[in-house]
Structures are given as C-alpha cells and as structure tokens.
C-alpha cells in the first residue's frame, strides 16, 4: 500500500479533508492501514506545494481523523493507464 496523506477533518458537506504528501489520480479508492475503505478521492484543492484532497467518505468515522490514508498500487497503475 502507498501512503498518500493524513486525514485532517470532515468538511461541512461531509467530505474528508486529507493533506496530501503525494497526489494520486482522481477517483481512486482510499484506505486506512488496516485496509478499511475510507472513500473515493474526487478532488484536489490548494496550491502545488501544499495540496489537499477531498474524499467522498463511505461513512463518517471520526476515528479516521489523524490517521494516514493509503491507496493500493494496483489501482494507481490501473488509473494511470487510461
């Protein structure tokens, strides 16, 4: 699994805001370290040096706040080929 960022908080719209260390392609599934699905990355905001991602969460789980967010390398390759 590849670490892409850190979960910060939920927005007013219910999306999870993630500080990105690496920007993956859009619409990839995101996971916690224990392979629990968090949601789908659907937007990248902010500037180039400090990007943030918006994850459309499958369910609101406050225990995710402060945890690292990961993607599967297979999904990264699949999304980049298209």
What features would you highlight for this structure?
82 residues; mainly beta; 6-stranded antiparallel sheet; 1 helix; 6 strands; 46% strand; globular
Descriptive report:
- The protein is built from one helix and six strands, in the order ββββββα.
- The protein has 82 residues and is mainly beta.
- It has a six-stranded antiparallel beta sheet.
- Strand 1 and strand 2 form a beta hairpin.
- The longest helix is centred in the C-terminal third of the chain and has 9 residues, at 73-81.
- The model has no long low-confidence stretch (mean pLDDT 92).
Furnish the topology, listing elements before pairings.
Blueprint: E1 2-10, E2 16-20, E3 29-31, E4 37-46, E5 51-57, E6 68-71, H1 73-81
Antiparallel strand pairs: 1-2, 1-6, 2-5, 3-4, 4-5
How would you summarize this macromolecular structure in one to three sentences?
It contains one helix and six strands; from the N terminus they run E-E-E-E-E-E-H. By secondary structure, it is mainly beta.
Helical content, roughly?
Answer: 10-25%
Q: Could you give the order of strands across the largest sheet? A: 3-4-5-2-1-6
Largest sheet: 6 strands, antiparallel
Structural class: mainly beta
User: Mean pLDDT, nearest integer?
Assistant: 92
In sequence order, what are the helices and strands, one letter per element?
A: EEEEEEH
Distance between the termini: 21 Å
Strand content: over 45%
Number of helices: 1
Low-confidence stretches: none
Radius of gyration, in Å, reads: 12 Å
